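Thread: quick sanity check before group meeting

JM: Hey all, I'm pulling together slides for Thursday and realized we never actually wrote out the predicted structure for the chain we discussed last week. Dropping the sequence here so it's in one place. If anyone has concerns about the input, flag it before I start.
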Amino acid sequence: MIPLDSFRRLPILMALLIGLALAAPAVAQTQVGRISEAGRARILARPAAPFAGAPAADLTVIEYLDFNCPYCKKAAVTLQQLMAADPKIRVLYKDWPIFGGVSDFAARATLAANYQGRYLAAHNILIDTPTRLATEAQVRQRLAFAGVDLEQMDKDLTARSEAIDAILARNNSEAQALGFTGTPGMVIGDVVVPGALPLDTLREVAKMSRTLDKTAAHP
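JM (edit): ok, ran it. Output follows.
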């Protein structure tokens, strides 16, 4: 289990919850938590995909997602807007195909595309698909349009199957340890938020997460 730290600094967390409620009243219904520094480090260790966003970031957003989740598609737009507005934020995508079937194939194909340096291109075109990915053929067509070499992808799906299995198993274990019951699930700095958030609230959480880090460094 990844160690969560929801109670050690309860007054700070309560201040965060109050701030979120003021920024967006709907978030008052969200079960916001806190992950420990050790837990965050374990999640960020050995990333299976490249980071999107700022190379020299001071804040990382980790998103657990399914390509067929409509809320993940909405979150993709706000995360892109967040990165565009904040030059010190990066995003690490964690494929978590909870809908099975085509979602599972899409996740595996995207991870296989990483072996040819096309993970982010594959991720972006699949998450931007306006409709549900209904067939593997549709996934393959979209990936080919993004410049993925399908022949090489198929080879990597076979040759790297154990590594891809391990990545997806790890993502699933992390998501469950964080208490996520659906997609998307996000870790913003060390703040754990299940569900998609509007851009203004995302920016507020990012700001408060940075404040929490400074408070932890100077108790």
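AS: nice. Residues 44 and 92 are 8 Å apart (CA to CA). The mean pLDDT is 87.
JM: adding both to the slides.
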